[in-house]
Amino acid sequence: MKYLVVFALLLAAVGSNAQVSSHAPTGAAKQAPTAGNPFQVSDKAIAKVNGAVLTDRDLLREMLQIFPYARQHNGFPKAQEASIREGALQMIIFEELVYQEAQRRKLTVAPQKLKTAEAEFAKQFPSQEEYNKYVKEEMGGSPQSVREKIKRSLLIEQVLKSDVENRSVVTAAEVRAYYDKNPARFQMKESFTFQSISVIPPQNATAEQKKEGLKRAEEALKQAKATKSYQEFGLLAEKISEDDFRVNMGDHKAIEKDKLPPQVVQALTAMKPGGVSGLIQIEQAYTIVRLNTHNATRKVSFEEVKKSLQEELRKAKYEQLRTELGKRLRANAKIEIL
Q1: Global pTM?
Q2: Which of 70, 221, 240, 323 is least surrounded by Cβ atoms within 10 Å, i.e. has the fewest?
Q3: Which of 289, 283, 282, 191 is nearest to 245 (CA)?
């Protein structure tokens, strides 16, 4: 239940004086602005959906759902903050429209289901004491306020389940038909999986720096040739390589032949799996590669992709249906961005 999880996420971000959104007013004191706090909210209205007010607290809740690492990063990435904000704004508007649609349909939540959801929400807190503190400080001491918030979440999920999730099922026959109609997509090009160790002199290196770079590369080659396995080569790469792949055992995974430099392709083609190349010079850098697999051009079988393809098609259908639902609900809605 996405919306229940986000309550606790929001609480963790804004601190122990956080207040619930405008959908469940409690009368609790608003959070006082704190210098240096990237998650300050004032419960100001930022949008209206058919008269229902959405606040900056609702917006922050969704922004944290989009970028859950904001707390560790002390805020949102500056380069992405505007797009995160816009995406969050559109999502909370969509949620409100779905909630209003649930009310229009007079949907209800079974008492036992609501009780179970309340218990699941309480489990998100580290202790019963913390949960009780949340109810007291953020819900005005009213368990009913918590219950109403959870009920809203469940009603939204009911509409999404009936209008989107249940209709996004993709049958095995549909998956097979897609596979048969798109043969080019499942044609695997010739590719290599390999590891690398690189020595990279500085840009505009002097003659002396180039000489030193070659010396280091020759020493690296000597050590690489002495390795006997993926693990040994990988550990050496992590220790001495100067390229970005050093943090992952020097592993490049599968790369298509036409996406590699000609010098690297020539070396890889001449080796058997487990072989280690000589020094490969690409501009001023020196690279050593270890071939793991050489994959020939072939068509990927239906059995290989059936499961992942079915999930891919289901997700695409889900997003299409959700977009269509949003358009229908927006058609006659009055939405104001404040």
Answers
A1: 0.66
A2: 323
A3: 289
